[in-house]
Every structure is written in structure tokens, then in C-alpha cells.
Amino acid sequence: MNLIATELHSPRPRFRTATRVAIVGAGFSGTMLALNLLEQADVEVLLIERDRHRMGAGVAYSSSESGHLLNVRAGNMSAFADRPDHFCNWLAARGLGCDAAFVTRATYGRYLREALAAAMEKHGRRLKLVDDAVLDIEERGGQVTLGLVNGGLIEADRAVLAIGNLPPHDPPAINGARLPAHRYIGDPWASAFEDGLDKDASVLVIGTGLTAVDVILRLVAHGHEGPITALSRRGLRPHRHLESLPRPQPVLAKPAPDLSELVRWARGESGERDWRLVVDSIRPITQMMWASADGEKRARFLRHLRPFWDVHRHRLAPEVADRIDALVASGQLRFRAGKIADVTAERDALAVSWLPRGEGGRVVTHVQRMINCTGPQGDLLRSSDPLVKRMLGAKRIRPDALRLGLDIDRDGHIIDAQGRASEHILAIGPMTRGDLWEVVAVPDIRIQVSALARRLVNAHWLGGEGL
Fold first, then answer.
1. Residues 188-222 as b or e (16 or more Cβ within 10 Å = b)
2. In angstroms, rounded to a whole number, what is the distance separating the alpha carbons of residues 406 and 412?
3. What DSSP string runs through 332-397?
4. What are the b/e assignments for 35-55, b being 16+ CB within 10 Å?
């Protein structure tokens, strides 16, 4: 009864029909929200992106590397939740196969750009692409005002943050070390990390996940022949997809209440069918399971199970896995488990002191280049993004409890430092993972943006009052 009373009396924003929506970020999340809005109502959309070359595709699908493949089969990569065959039909129209194919990320980026171009042609007067960066967002008089880098202002009745992932954070042993920029690459997507590197040079990749795989493949594609070491706490690398597996049978109810019991359930099920089918079978209820877990349970999952979840859940296309296996077999690539203790810049190298997992004593490795591939992070307090810093400083946003991203309410409104939900500023995409957890891949984000678009352009009834 107390819970019901709390829900009834908690101040929550009321959705009113939006007529002008400003979307900050034109990666997958922002672009697809714009397209959904345009198709569902007579609404004006301003899609704002600071990097014109990533308009429509974002960081994830702007890669031009032929070796960078999608980690999800093309058959499940439609951008539209209500049109599951949209991407396959697009591929077929261009003489490309679909079925179980893993296409390049460049191909998928082209698909998204063409979808955006088609929307421009169809809804041109209602869709405006803004090539600029947002420095601040304020709520005034029932509207939002967005301040741009060029000094301009945009007014709308809703603003949606679709800022994607934050760049990787420096590991503790490196943070503040002031290493030479040509030796240490803090963000592999912000620079050409292979430039100026001797082909026989020794490279240390910090991290062993999907970002590390991307970086390793790019190094080799650009002719690198020197030794590459990929280092992470546990040394785990992503597993591969298998061809010709049947469709997973979805689990529609939580299989176990506690994490330890859930692990036992998964192991038991894996004795009867391929573990990939077991992991994929709980995808329909992953967000429900996360929502039902309290803060302590979520923290324990992140501390103990997340690395194992990531390598089983986010898998490699078979062709990519074959390339990585070949590099390991040749001796050029090694995966190691350990923790960096200290890094010192020497005249012609970096001296990296690290502690191998399960072994005594330190090991010192000399490398000509070190690349941070720990992957996207979400701790707002460590972000250098101007908009994030400005809104944090003004106390208009706050981190979620586990610092995975933005704190939001159940409808996607951002929550300020005093715990109040905004009426006019919302968030979508990976920065909402603290609330939803499984919201980093296309199949999950397309559902999120479709649902938010419907809420934004349709009046709802809340508290018995029509809005």
C-alpha cells in the first residue's frame, strides 16, 4: 500500500504532445528517433550532430574498414521495430544477401544514411539537420533552449539526449600520467592510432573486448606486422557466433531469483543445448530482470559477472573470429590477463609494469604504442564532453547509482541533482543503460526509440486528467 501511495504522489512529468523536438546526436539512436517521429505525426524535428561525417551513422557505423563486421546477423538488424525485413529488403535491392550474413559496418552505415536521406526527401520541411554542437540545454517557460557552439539558439518543446557512448576512461594507473601523445592513444576512435607506427613495433592494447578486436584488425589491415598484446583483468575475449543454430526459444519468465541460481540455471541448460541459445533465450526479459534487481544485486553483477556476460552475449562474426584465431596461432597476437601497475615514458618506448593474474611479481613490458581499448564508459563525472560537464555543473543531470550513464525515470526523463525529473529533457540509447542495462545494440534501441516517439507525439492520460 505504501508503494502505491508513493507512486501516486511522486511528481512525474506529464507527456504533452510534442510539436517541435530537438535531438542531440545523430547516431543510430538519434537518427531512428527522428525517423520514427516523422512517420508517426506532424512534428518538426531538429537533428543536431557536431560531426557532419557521422550524421546518420554515428561512431559505430562510420568505420570504412572492410574487416569491421556487424556483431549481429543482418536478418535482425532492421532499423525499424515494426518492419523486421527492412534491412534485408534493402540488401536484396542492391544484390546483397541477407539470411545469416554478417555485413560490414560500413554497409550498415550506408543503410542508415540512405534512410535519413529518404526521410529528408519525404519530410524535408519538417526535418532539419543541424551541423553543430550543443553546449547547454535549459528549460524555460514550458520549453527548452539549446545553446550551440556557433552562438546560435534553438528552441523546442522537447530535447532528447542521444549522445551515444562516452569515450573510454583512462585506466587508474595511467590517469594523469601525461604520457606522450604518440605513445599512448586514449581514445582509438578520436585519432588515426596507426599513424607514424613502425610496422614492426610492439603494441599493447588495453582491453580484450570488441573495441580491442576492432583495433587489432585495423592495425593488421594497415600492414602492422609487429607483436600485439591484448591485456585485461581476466584476459577474456569475445566468443564467436555459430552458423546454422536454430532460433532460440525465448524464456518469458525470470528463470531464477538470484545471480548464483541464474548461473546454475544457465549451466544446466547449456548441457542440453548450445550455450549461445541459452544466453539468447533470456534476451526478451533481460531488461525486466535488471529492473527487478535492487542496487546491491546490480552492483554484484557488474563486479563479478559482467565480464563473462559481455564475452558470451556480444559475440564475433565467424569471419572475424577466424582472423583473430589466426593471429593468435601465428604468434603475432597474445591475450593476457593482468592489471597495469605503472607506466613510464622512456626515450623510445613505454615501460609498462603489470601484475599477471594468478602469478606473483611484476612483469615489465616495453612497447612503442599503447592503445586504450577498454571500451565506451558511462561515468559522467569523468567525462570531458562540454555538454555533459555544463549540465552537471548546473545540476541539471546526475549519474545513475552505478555510474553507467544518465539517471532517468521510467519514461526516459533525465533526473537532476535534487532527484527531480525534467519535464522537457529526455534521454535514449546507451547512456540509459543504468535503467535498462540491455540498450546498446540495434534490436534493443529500435524498440526504445519507437516507444518514445509514440509517447512524444501522442497526448496521454495521467492522474485522471487529459493532457
1. bbeeebbeebeeebbbbbbbbbbbbbbbbbbbbee
2. 10
3. SEEEEEEEEEEEEE-SSSEEEEEEETTSSS-EEEEESEEEE-S--B--GGG---HHHHHHHHTTS-
4. bbbbbebebbbbbbbbeeebb
Alpha helices for 139-274 (secondary structure H):
210-221, 259-270
192-240 tens-digit pLDDT? 888 889 999 999 999 999 999 999 999 999 999 999 999 999 999 999 9
Give the span between the Cα atoms of 220 and 228, in whole angstroms. Answer: 10
- Rounded Cα distance between 24 and 391, Å, is 14
Q: Which one, of 410, 399, 400, lies nearest residue 448 by Cα?
A: 410
The rounded distance, in Å, linking the Cα atoms of 2 and 404 is 29
Backbone φ and ψ of 338, nearest 5°: 175, 180
Q: What is the pTM of this model?
A: 0.89
Residue 68: exposure state from Cβ atoms within 10 A (0-12, 13-18, ≥19): buried
**Residue carrying C-alpha cell 559477472:** 305
Residue 210 CA to residue 287 CA, distance in Å, equals 22
> How many angstroms separate the CA atoms of 454 and 307, rounded?
35
> What angle is formed at CA 202 by the lines to CA 234 and CA 307, rounded to 5 degrees?
15
Quick one: cell of 133?
554542437
